Amino acid sequence: MKDSLDSVLIAGGGTLGAQSALQFALHGKQVAIYGRSEESIARAEQRVERFRTPYINDTDFDEEAVATAIDSIEYTTEISRAGDVDLVFECVAETTEAKTAIYKALRPHLRPETVVATNSSTVLPSQLAPLLAFEAQFVAIHFANEIWKRPAAEIMGHPGTDASVFDQAQAFAAQVGMVPLPIYKERSGYILNSLLIPFVESALELWGAGVSDPKTIDKTWEIVMDSLGPFKVLDVIGMRTVYAVLKSREAKGVPGTGELAQVVMRDYIEQGRLGVEAGAGFYDYDDQGQAIVD
């Protein structure tokens, strides 16, 4: 077992993948982002660049350090790079189809000692581990969005995860400036989403039932609790995830969620209102990522 996981291939350059790449690079890790096409690579580069200003404004890293870290990140369409790194960090779309496809593609290239981690927020490690040849090397390392502000790293194994890999994952999280939060028993939603999902689902239910509008629901919560309202939280999470949550609840037979999912797709996702990352979601956002409230 290596003392330190120093080289990382991030599979998927979406919002979390791009943030993670910059976070890891700033803390001295050798980082590459894998994308399936040159187009996906270009999008990943744009996302990483978008995080330049927040990291300069909101962290102790200066412009030079952030620029150096961004320049150090490599981009590749070669999945075989998975055989050259200590850690493969999977950040593809939160669907069973996308995750199954990436693990099947990774499998022939992984060495027995390579640690593989998913950043999934809903799929259990035990559901994905059988897709790999070396199941003991598989673990979940889950981050929330805006990791430079919210450095939580939930670490969860599956029954076959080697204890040393669980320890390596916690050590890695600490090395890249995150706070490791060990989870000792598999649970969909981990700790954070087990607490958060009922909160935001209640807000979506109020909205979907026509009880009130998102901004009034938020204002009610913020006046009393002095913390972000649920729809501002959903903007941080991102509309794609909101849509996935609603579709999941629709599949479970929860009334009204299918119709609400259609609203989110039509009025938000298809309009480019993807949340804070896009500058617009339930709210519009200024250049500092602050909600513009009437």
From TrEMBL:
A GO BP term, please? fatty acid beta-oxidation
Annotated site (Important for catalytic activity):
H142
User: What's its EC?
Assistant: 1.1.1.157
- Which keywords annotate this record? Oxidoreductase
- Could you identify this protein by its name? Putative 3-hydroxybutyryl-CoA dehydrogenase
Q: Which Gene3D superfamilies match?
A: N-(1-d-carboxylethyl)-l-norvaline Dehydrogenase, domain 2 (1.10.1040.10), NAD(P)-binding Rossmann-like Domain (3.40.50.720)
**Pfam families reported for this sequence:** 3HCDH, 3HCDH_N
- Encoded by which gene? mmgB
Q: Which InterPro entries match?
A: 3-OHacyl-CoA_DH, 3-OHacyl-CoA_DH_NAD-bd, 3HC_DH_C, 6-PGluconate_DH-like_C_sf, 6PGD_dom2, NAD(P)-bd_dom_sf
3-hydroxyacyl-CoA dehydrogenase C-terminal domain boundaries: 189-285
Q: Name one GO molecular function term.
A: 3-hydroxybutyryl-CoA dehydrogenase activity
Similarity comment: family membership: Belongs to the 3-hydroxyacyl-CoA dehydrogenase family.
Which pathway, metabolic or otherwise, does it act in?
A: Lipid metabolism; butanoate metabolism
Enumerate the spans annotated as 3-hydroxyacyl-CoA dehydrogenase NAD binding domain. 8-185
Q: Look at the named UniProt entry and state the broad enzyme category this protein falls under.
A: oxidoreductase
Highest taxon listed in the record's lineage: Bacteria
